[in-house]
Design goal:
Blueprint lengths: L2 H11 L1 H12 L2 E2 H5 L6 H13 L3 E6 L2 E6 L5 H11 L1 H17 L1
Antiparallel strand pairs: 1-3, 2-3
Length: 106
């Protein structure tokens, strides 16, 4: 696994970060908007955003003294590439599973 893949997996391993990411998938939000509905402090949300930003999953836009965050779709590329490598295995294995299940039924 390369470093970019590791960063994305590490960032999304935390349930709170996944929740933040999912909320940002709907629209751009400020830290205070993101905090609403989450049971974590504003500094904790900022820390989670820093991890997501470091992994390339979100980007920040500054407007005056406020920061707004949105999903960076290209940030999921390492995850998509990782899944694609293993996707080739599934059709063959599913077919083998079907054969085994048929044999078990007989």
């Amino acid at each position: 696994m390369n470093e970019a893949e590791s960063e994305v997996f590490r960032a999304l391993a935390d349930p709170t970060r996944r929740a933040v990411y999912q909320r940002l998938a709907d629209r751009e939000m400020s830290v205070s908007e993101l905090r609403k509905g989450l049971e974590v402090s504003q500094p904790a949300v900022s820390q989670h955003l820093a991890v997501l930003r470091g992994a390339g999953l979100v980007c920040e836009r500054r407007e005056g003294r406020f920061s707004y965050y949105r999903v960076e779709p290209a940030g999921l590329a390492p995850l998509i590439d990782w899944v694609a490598r293993y996707q080739a295995f599934w059709p063959e294995r599913v077919e083998k599973l079907k054969e085994v299940l048929k044999e078990m039924d007989q």
